[in-house]
Every structure is written in C-alpha cells, then in structure tokens.
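Quiz preparation item.
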C-alpha cells in the first residue's frame, strides 16, 4: 500500500494522474468501497 502524507500533499492531483494502477484518488472521489483506506492513511502518519 502506498501512503500519502496529508500534511505534505498539496492536492494537485499529479500522483493520481500518473498512478499506473489507478489506485490513487482525490479524497472526495474515493469509491465508497475503499473509504476505509482514508482513515488507514491518516493513522499511518499519526503513528510516525
């Protein structure tokens, strides 16, 4: 799983456009069945 630091991300969408497996979404466009990953991503950086 790839993690994106929410404190560093500037929401430009550049990573979304170049992801070879189309697995990166802008937070407000994450499919409903993948919403759990938003919290996991935030938690990953809280623990660092």
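Solution:
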């Amino acid at each position: 799983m790839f993690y994106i630091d929410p404190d560093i991300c500037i929401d430009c969408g550049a990573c979304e456009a170049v992801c070879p497996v189309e697995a990166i979404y802008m937070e407000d466009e994450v499919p409903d069945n993948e919403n759990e990953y938003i919290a996991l991503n935030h938690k990953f950086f809280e623990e660092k």
